[in-house]
Specification:
- The protein has about 400 residues and is an all-alpha fold.
- It is about 75% helix and about 0% strand.
- It has 2 domains: about 10-95, no CATH class; about 95-390, no CATH class.
- The protein has helices at about 10-25, 30-45, 50-60, 65-105, 115-125, 125-145, 150-165, 170-185, 205-215, 220-235, 240-255, 260-270, 280-310, 315-320, 320-340, 345-350, 355-370, 375-390.
Length: about 400
């Protein structure tokens, strides 16, 4: 499969405008991004057929990393090749990245104003409820598709991922890889025969981790690069799985930020447009200022661009690979469990009694009344601001 050359192929200027527009208005996470891309490429402009779009969506969901970002890059690649992919991907990512870095200077500063601390603590208190909502959204279709004994294994993989997210933190990625490997072995498939089309099974990042951390001071550039690489190259199961991958590194291991600041960073990643993966830029900002934020974003998004630029032509093979599907049958439910399990350390990070009231209200809004994540986080931030102005404790 090669990049499409439709009779009405858009110019690079059109890609810059349209993908930039989606990057600016893409609030609401992957469901909103997929809807906007479908409306543009299939419904309004007829650049892609419905079948082409659906198969692209299926393929990027088999890859680690932010699926909606990869879909945006892939759609642009189908229209204008590698140049279109680079331009479309950058236009999709950059608006939200600029905004989250700008907000990081406000919310993650050493001594922000009282109302800012209140807004951050209010929105941060709701993050655990967002994690449960996101995890259920990933887990429900996985469990619904499973049949017979596979359903039992799916539940066990999810429990393993949840337990790892709640306890071991930095080693969560090993649990995700192990669950995929177990399912491979269970089906009698050899991982050693994997070709280039089976990217999720590559274990090279663990060797990269050792090299990076050995070459750098604890908590330095090597550690930040490894944390960002985990986010971009090993996040199976949806964008929110990056939260447990980052939390232990950012707060407990390298002390780049406090628990409260991490909750603020996650909230910022939810209320800004574009992929949730941009949360890593806020972590990078706390680790090394603006340069750290840009470096973390570069490392986290590089795998997504690489997967499309180097492997988009192999997507049909990816969709038919028994090994890839078997691996994800183990890794994906583990990732879903990890998202839900991350709610435990996120809740434990709450420091003030009034924040639990905000968390309870957010849980009701998200899980019972099914309100949008962005609206709920904004409401939680407003509640926190009001609480702070009324004298509720907001330690700096």
């Amino acid at each position: 499969m090669t990049a499409a050359k439709p009779q009405t192929a858009p110019s690079l200027t059109t890609i810059l405008r349209e993908w930039g527009r989606i990057g600016c208005i893409g609030f609401g996470g992957p469901p909103a991004h997929v809807t906007l891309l479908r409306e543009l490429c299939v419904t309004r402009r007829s650049w892609l057929t419905e079948t082409q779009f659906e198969r692209a969506l299926a393929a990027v969901n088999l890859l680690p990393g932010p699926a909606s970002t990869q879909l945006a890059i892939y759609c642009a690649w189908r229209l204008r090749g590698n140049r279109g992919a680079l331009l479309g991907g950058l236009c999709f990512v950059l608006p939200g990245l600029v905004l989250i870095l700008a907000l990081s200077t406000l919310f993650l500063a050493g001594s922000p104003p009282v109302w800012v601390r209140g807004a951050g603590m209010g929105a941060g208190a709701a993050v655990a409820a967002v994690a449960i909502r996101a995890g259920i959204g990933v887990a429900a279709p996985i469990f619904a598709r499973a049949r017979g004994r596979l359903r039992v294994r799916v539940a066990l993989y999810a429990l393993a991922g949840g337990a790892a997210a709640a306890t071991v933190g930095p080693e969560l990625v090993l649990v995700l890889l192990a669950c995929g490997a177990i399912e491979l072995a269970r089906r009698g498939l050899r991982s050693g025969a994997i070709g280039l089309h089976a990217w999720p099974l590559l274990a090279w990042p663990m060797a990269v981790r050792s090299a990076l951390l050995a070459a750098a001071d604890p908590g330095g550039t090597g550690a930040l690069v490894w944390t960002a690489l985990k986010v971009g190259a090993l996040a199976f199961g949806g964008g929110f799985v990056i939260v447990p991958l980052m939390q232990s590194d950012a707060v407990n291991t390298y002390h780049w930020m406090t628990h409260a600041q991490f909750l603020n960073a996650v909230a910022l990643g939810q209320v800004t447009p574009g992929p949730v993966t941009q949360t890593v830029a806020a972590v990078g900002y706390s680790a090394g200022g603006l340069a750290g934020g840009l470096l973390a974003a570069l490392v986290a998004f590089a795998p997504s661009f690489s997967f499309i630029l180097l492997g988009a032509a192999r997507f049909e093979r990816l969709l038919s690979s028994e090994r890839v599907l078997a691996f994800l049958a183990g890794a994906a439910p583990a990732a879903a469990g990890a998202i839900i399990g991350s709610a435990i350390p996120l809740t434990m990070a709450i420091g003030e009694t009034w924040q639990y009231l905000v968390l309870g209200a957010a849980a009701a809004a998200l899980l019972v009344f099914r309100r949008s994540v962005v609206t709920t986080l904004l409401a939680a931030g407003i509640a926190g601001t009001v609480a702070a102005l009324l004298g509720a404790p907001t330690p700096g």
